[in-house]
Design brief:
The complex is a heterotrimer of chains A (about 300), B (about 270) and C (about 220). Chain B has about 270 residues and is mainly alpha-helical. Chain B contains 11 helices and no strands. In chain B, helix 4 packs across helix 7, helix 8 runs antiparallel to helix 9 and helix 10 packs antiparallel against helix 11. The chains are: A alpha/beta (about 300), B mainly alpha (about 270), C mainly alpha (about 220). At the B-C interface, helix 1, helix 2, helix 5, helix 6 and helix 9 of B face helix 2, helix 3, helix 5, helix 6 and helix 7 of C.
Amino acid sequence: MSITTLLKSTVAALAIAGSGSLLAQGTPIDAAAFDALVAAGPVASPDVIAASPWASKIKQAGALRLGGTQTSNLFSLLNEKDGRMRGFDAGLAQLVTRYILGDASKIQFTQVNSSTREQVLINGQVDMVMATYSITPARAEKISFAGPYYTSQAGVLVKSNNKAIQSYNDLAGKKVATQAGSTGPAILAQFAPKSTVQEFQTHQEALDSLRQGRVDAYVTDHTLLLNALSLGTGDAKLAGAPFGAQDPYGIGLPKGSDGVAFVNAFLKKIEADGTWAKLWTISIGQRTGSTAVPTPPALP
Amino acid sequence: MRRTLEDTLFGAPSPRTRALTRAGNFVAAGALLLLAAGIAYRFHSAGQLEPRYWQFFAWPTTWAFLAKGLLGTLASAAMSAVIALSLGLMLMLGRLSRLRLVRWPSIAAIEFLRGTPTLLLIYLCFLVLPSIGVKLSTYWMLTLPIGFSTAAVVAEVYRAGVLAVPRGQTDAARSLGMTGTQVFFTIVFPQALRYIVPALVAQLVIVVKDTTFGYVVTYGELMQNAKVLIANYHSLVPVYLVVAALYCLVNYGISRASRRLGRPMH
Amino acid sequence: MGDVAKLLADHGPAFWQALLLTWKLTALAFVPGFALGVAVAALRLFPLAPLRACLAFYVEIFRNIPSVALLIFIVFALPDLEVVIDYEHSVVLTLALVCSAFTADYLRTGINTIPSGQIEAALSLGMRPARVISSIVLPQALRSVVQPITSLLIALMLSTSLASQVPMPGRELTALVSKMGNDAAIGMAAFMVAAAMYVATGLLIAWAGATLDRKVRILR
């Protein structure tokens, strides 16, 4: 082996050893590609904005007040070193901001969880909520949804050495974690009524409870579970195939807001020009080992 | 200087007691070291001492991020303290008033605010007030309930201080022809304040502790930033330990600073 | 008022269960917390420097740590150290630890009010220090701190609202009200009922404490 090859492999080995955090995060998001995609997003023309009171108000305020999460690995994770959020939801939010304001960074961020998502819209604390928010009729009574922008079925996550649970049929009498205020409780009531349900405020807490043995299984959106597997700590697996109805994710907006039409038009635009597919690949596809880009759900 | 009880009890030890004490010190130190070793061993066997769970603490960005969270905590705590101190004063004055029309509502307000948990008041601001049209910003949804809740306790602390000032001073001042208000604000209240400073500072510590409920109303403070670090590095134990230590340090610092001021009531 | 009546008709049993759970958590946390606090205060009297330093450290930690931070540590971080405690016990443990630190602190003040003449007299009678502590110091100290301990018990009762932050099987008052608030727009009625229950319990404890204080306090 030549000196240069030796040097290169040493540097590579050191890099891998030093980046022990890789193992903890699974495949980290391709930050450069993400930032480039967001920076190249479309910008609305002034008359499109003027036609929408919701967008005009945001433009006048100079920033979009966003309710979202900073702790979801696939959908929106804050990198505290450069202060930027990256993920599928984060990307869409930044693209909307760029669409209205011309600059994807003009976001005023508020951390929400399953219990606070509706209330912050009702209280007028934020303009928009993007937080793996499933569209349900009950929620649609309090707030309005734009989209859907993504769909996912439910899945069951268990520890690798769990042979007892092969699918959602085996959950009777078991302790099952789910996210409070999500579609999880309703799905469990329908498919696994005899299970003991524990509701957690965030995805991270529910995952930790599975890892720590407080629950036997975790039922939530299939995509979030793929995320957990991508973390590569290796001791969880999916039990059975995705089940249940296709859960549509929507963008939360104040009730009756005209922002719904505006955001739907925006979604149609980025689905048509391939931005949606590229964002999916960068934030989800590359990190969960899925290569088939799903078709975006039909917009009303 | 007054001897403490321990000095009286264990002062002037006999040779036998001194030997026993030395042995006791030995045993106690040994037991504590064993305890510390046991804890360290548990950390090690649970894999919590691996570098990847601690290495990000060596980066300045981590501390800058935590400091931002701490600033959020302190911003809310400072304003809550101001509200508590001023509203508490008004409530106390109302309670001590001779007019029934002023006294009874003050007593009711104090009992209500003292008797309900701060968390319940926070939920009230977050869930109920908006439905009747009162839309506060995230910051005020946390700061107002904490401020009001603490104001009631502060009112009682003020009252205890005022009642501890010797009656003779009020009598003397009145006999000099001073009006009630003059007596209160120039003679009674300044002395009362010096008695109660430790108790007021204890309330300040409670205010800082209450800000940890910020996530209930989506206010960004230290605990929230801790969760971001955990989501990035999956290091639960180290992050929560460091954050708990930060809170303890801040509160301890506040209590310590107060010991310079004030003197005890007896 | 009609709102309140309707609320009680629909959710009366739930409120009652929640109130009982609040009382249960308070009692379960206070008894061990108080006992531990007394033990800590007594042990701090012994002239063993390592022990005193360690107990002083213990008291400072649990007086200054926010209860939410402690609860989150016990519920979410301890399992990573292979110590898994179920939710209700975690809440009780958190409250008991904090209660013990404050008890030890108040008791220390109480201990300092005892005139040293009594100690000197007891020692001159040939009593051992341990006996002096158990027969002379502690009984009088306990009698003189009834009022602050009553306030502590009330604060503890209010702190059981913490339990709303972990997925416990039962719901206490704050958890019940916040769940009702999330499910539907309940308005002020539910909050007022919960607040009234808390205030009533607090007043009850305060009255009991004042009566006890009048009976046992020592006038010097």
